[in-house]
Structure formats: structure tokens, C-alpha cells
Automatic annotation (TrEMBL):
Keywords: Oxidoreductase. Residues 8-153 form the Nitroreductase domain. Belongs to the nitroreductase family. Pfam families: Nitroreductase (PF00881). InterPro entries: Nitroreductase, Nitroreductase-like. It comes from Peptoniphilus harei ACS-146-V-Sch2b. One of its GO terms (molecular function) is oxidoreductase activity. This is Nitroreductase family protein. The keyword Iron-sulfur does not apply.
């Protein structure tokens, strides 16, 4: 897929085909993208947990909140729509750099693009708590987990709708239950000099 189409397709997907597992090759390809992510001073302080066990995936799913912009849990996947794979991103409490958030963003971009190239959707979830993730994933006390990424083959569509600055940028579901993601026009948010 050419890059622009890949970037357009890579949206947050919140409903997956729970019957379709990811292959080992797909998981390995997604994980391999980690080594290509730039990071501050090349310190590589982030650590990752590849959650492949169905039991652990469901436990993590139970401890997450989904689609805060949608009313009444409309964005939370139901049985049969839940993700089939998670990656937890861990930060080192002892080796904090001022660019940790940038490092996370860069590696998340790689992970989600590598998945998208394979037709696998993703959703970045920041509504997790470290203590609950630690109970499920048993990682060292020096690390914290403040986000996970859910993966699976999407069974909905997600598309961009260009809007003006005065319009509401909250995502929503259309009449068919697909995601519409409003994005500002480039000329409204970029100053050219």
C-alpha cells in the first residue's frame, strides 16, 4: 500500500473480527517495527509486552475503557468484536527523559503502521491503570504501564471527514455504525511562510 493510503487507512478501530487470530508472522512483523523507531539520544528505555495469550488479552480488555467520545459505551467492543492481541508499552521510572512521550509516539506509529500494512487494525488505549496492568502482566516495579495497543482485523470502517475549525472535532458513528473522524483542513492548521 502506498504511504498516503496506508496513513489514511490507519485509524483507530474499535470493533474487530474476534474469530480471526493474528499469525505468528504478523505478530513478529509488528514487533520488528520497534527497532526502527527513533528515540531520544537512542537510549531505548521503553519496554514492551506482547500479549498473545487469549486469557491475558481478555483480562486486559476487561480493564480498559473505549471510545470516551461516544455515549453509553457505544464504542466498546462486544463479544465477538474484541481485540485478539495487545502490546503493553512500559516506561522506566528510573530512566525518565523529557522526550519519553515523543519516544512512545514514534514507536506507536511504527507498530500501528506495521499492523495496518497487514490489514490489521489497532486502537491506542490510555485508559488503563498501572496497578491493574501489573497484576495481569507481572512486570518489574521499575516500570509503569500507562497505555496498551489493541489489535485485530477490523469489522467496521473508519474514515476521515474534513471540517472547518468552527466544527466539532469529536468522532462519531454514522448510520451504519462506522466511525467518522473529523479532521481540520490543512490550510486551517498550517501556517506557510
Amino acid at each position: 500500500m502506498e504511504l498516503e493510503k496506508l496513513l489514511e487507512w490507519r485509524r483507530s478501530y474499535r470493533k474487530f473480527d474476534e474469530e480471526r487470530e493474528l499469525s505468528k508472522d504478523d505478530i513478529d512483523g509488528i514487533l520488528n517495527s520497534i527497532k526502527f523507531a527513533s528515540c531520544a539520544n537512542n537510549r531505548q528505555f521503553l519496554r514492551f509486552i506482547s500479549v498473545e495469550s487469549k486469557e491475558k488479552v481478555l483480562k486486559i480488555f476487561d480493564k480498559t475503557r473505549w471510545a470516551a467520545s461516544l455515549p453509553n459505551g457505544a464504542g466498546r467492543p462486544k463479544e465477538g468484536e474484541r481485540p485478539v492481541y495487545f502490546i503493553a508499552i512500559l516506561s522506566d521510572k528510573e530512566k525518565k527523559l523529557k522526550f519519553d512521550g515523543v519516544d512512545q509516539g514514534l514507536v506507536i506509529s511504527n507498530l500501528t503502521l506495521a499492523a495496518a500494512e497487514r490489514g490489521i487494525g489497532s486502537c491506542i488505549i490510555g485508559s488503563v491503570t498501572d496497578d491493574k496492568m501489573r497484576q495481569i502482566l507481572s512486570y518489574d516495579e521499575r516500570y509503569t504501564c500507562s497505555l496498551v495497543i489493541a489489535f485485530g482485523y477490523p469489522n467496521i470502517k473508519s474514515k476521515i471527514k474534513e471540517i472547518n475549525l468552527s466544527e466539532d472535532q469529536s468522532y462519531y458513528l454514522d448510520d451504519d455504525g462506522n466511525y467518522i473522524v473529523p479532521k481540520y483542513k490543512i490550510d486551517d492548521i498550517v501556517r506557510r511562510i
